[in-house]
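Design job #97: recover the sequence.
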């Protein structure tokens, strides 16, 4: 059996993989752990990854939280170390988005969310697909499955209809003037 667990850092892939590994008696492989170890140990692939990151000015600081009470501490650390914060789809962070956004804004650090809901809760901006669109696609796929289409015959869907959402209140807190051409195409929330 081969399973792939996809998700953002800290989303619980490792936890779920460990549980499934024990239940199904199958090994667990973490590509993130492999890449981090490869960079640290200066393997050929690790050196290529580091070279790419260095050449493109890419660095990252990762903070993993497991509950809402850890969010304030994580954001306090991050806001001192980074120029911007991206928050993947994560219900723990979503619950505390106002704290995250306000704390980061105090230091002039924008928070980019992965959904319009995060922007409505205080993140500066996102470019994403809408929750209703995701729901409709999921419902269509579920209907196919429930009416007898084998799961392997239901194609993956690549969505290419994105919406830019900007929180004007957060932009004002950050001192960001949104260009007129962006205002014409983006959804602006307060």
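Job complete. Output follows.
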């Amino acid at each position: 059996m081969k399973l792939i667990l996809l998700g953002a850092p800290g989303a619980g892939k490792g936890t779920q993989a460990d549980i499934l590994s024990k239940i199904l008696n199958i090994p667990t492989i973490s590509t993130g752990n492999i890449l981090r170890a490869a960079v640290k140990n200066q393997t050929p692939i690790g050196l290529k990854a580091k070279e790419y990151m260095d050449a493109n000015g890419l660095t990252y600081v990762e903070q993993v939280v497991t509950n809402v009470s850890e969010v304030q501490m994580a954001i306090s650390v991050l806001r001192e170390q980074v120029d911007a914060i991206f928050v993947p789809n994560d219900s723990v962070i979503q619950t505390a988005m106002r704290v995250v956004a306000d704390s980061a804004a105090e230091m002039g650090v924008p928070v980019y969310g992965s959904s319009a809901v995060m922007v409505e809760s205080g993140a500066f901006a996102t470019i994403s697909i809408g929750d209703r669109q995701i729901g409709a696609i999921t419902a269509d796929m579920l209907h196919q499955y429930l009416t007898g289409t084998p799961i392997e015959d239901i194609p993956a869907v690549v969505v290419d209809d994105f919406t830019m959402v900007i929180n004007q209140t957060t932009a004002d807190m950050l001192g960001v003037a949104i260009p007129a051409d962006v205002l014409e195409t983006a959804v602006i929330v307060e």
